[in-house]
Amino acid sequence: MKILLVSNGSLPIPPPSWGGVENVIWQQQNYLTRAGHDVTVFNEEITMLSVLRAKPWQYDLTHLHFDLGTKFWVPWQKLLKFRLAVTSHYGHAAFPAHWTPKFKKTLRRMIRASHHITLSHEIRDMLYERGYQGKAWVLPNGIETSAMHFDPVPSKPALVLGRVQPRKKQRFLGDILLGEPGVQVDLIGPTDEPDYLGNGANVTYLGGWSRDTVHSDLTQYAAMVLISDGEAHAGVLLEAMAAGLSLVVSPESAHNLDTNLPFVFVVDREKPAEIITALKRAIAENLAHRAAIRAYCENTFDWKVIGPRYERILNAIVRGDGTGDGGEPFLYAPGK
Q1: Which one, 100, 122, 126, 232, has least CB within 10 Å?
Q2: 12 and 111 together in one domain
Q3: Would 324 be classed as within a structural domain?
Q4: Which residues, in sequence order, are CB contacts of 159 under 8 Å at separation 6+?
């Protein structure tokens, strides 16, 4: 197939360090190219004219990774009749209570798209609940498990890997851990809250890591914490599991995970004591599960699993039907 992957030009692809969406596109391009497809990445600011510069009618399928871009891409698709699939990476997409006015307007455009490839079944369900009448498939993010270094024994307790921002609740975590000096948590990533450097005791902001450092050093930790009030599908959790880390996550961060596994702790932000207890357990019990954690990640989210699934979805869209490996609704069953 001849495939066009579209981003919004805000960061290069591959991204130099941070850039979750750009990293997803880069991995998709790599997999599809290895599988023998002709793949082009179009990474420019999205305008009415940039859609024409991309020449989507020359491709079997266009995959748009920027939901705001539906303002221009969907009208052109209706006019020119090329195949278009949309993926929203908006962290609050499945959580209407947090929607901004901009996303509400964007959603009205999104539901006019003929095809969606959603990052979780929660986002897919939201689309249909809001009146979407097209076809939507679920494709979690993937990972090259072998790219993540793995140490069988951790040397550090816990971290939050991700942009420091209100949605991800690093400041809240620092507040509830202030009275727990025995629990140390590092905060790593770019920041939208430059005034917050940790709680001054056991939660410390260490700045950002390069992509190479994520690959090499993440495995030093026993546990990854992500108690966001919204995630689409957090790629950092895949990186953490590939590196052998246990997970302490909020329900809003737990998309696509098998939450019955002994190394996945789903916690309620309204119950700080529950978070603290889960974090202590995740750290203490990690050594016994590290190999199993990496194996679960490889068997569930590695590109050798996600990649063929992506191809089957693209083929189903090109064929114009909902069949193929489970058919409609083509939901994702973690670990299967």
Answers
A1: 100
A2: yes
A3: no
A4: 185, 186, 187, 188, 218, 221, 223, 224, 225
Burial class (CB in 10 A: 0-12, 13-18, 19+), 153: exposed
Closest among 211, 286, 198, 196 to 241, alpha carbons compared? 286
- Domain count of the fold of the chain: 2
Question: Which two structure tokens, joined as six digits, stand for 225?
Answer: 């914490």
Q: What is the pLDDT of residues 101-156, one digit of tens each?
A: 999 999 999 999 999 999 999 999 999 999 999 899 999 999 999 999 999 999 99
User: Is 295 found in the same domain as 151?
Assistant: yes
The CATH code of the domain that includes 95 is: 3.40.50.2000
* Distance from C-alpha of 177 to C-alpha of 55, rounded to nearest angstrom: 52
Sign of the torsion angle spanned by Cα atoms 171, 173, 175, 181: negative
Question: Based on the domain organization, do 45 and 99 belong to the same domain?
Answer: yes
- Residues 207, 103 share a domain: no
- Provide the angle, in degrees to the nearest 10, between the axes of the packed helices 272-301 and 235-242: 80
Identify the bridge partners of residue 117 per DSSP, sorted by sequence position.
137
Tens of pLDDT along 5-37?
999 988 888 887 776 899 999 999 999 999 999
Domain for residue 327, yes or no? no
Question: How far apart are alpha carbons 58 and 38 in whole angstroms?
Answer: 12
The token duo for 198 is: 């940790």
**Rounded to 5 degrees, what are φ and ψ at 186?**
-95, 140
Q: Which domain holds residue 118?
A: 2-142+302-319
Task: Return left, alpha or beta for 91; rule: phi > 0 is left, psi -120 to 50 is alpha, else beta.
Answer: alpha
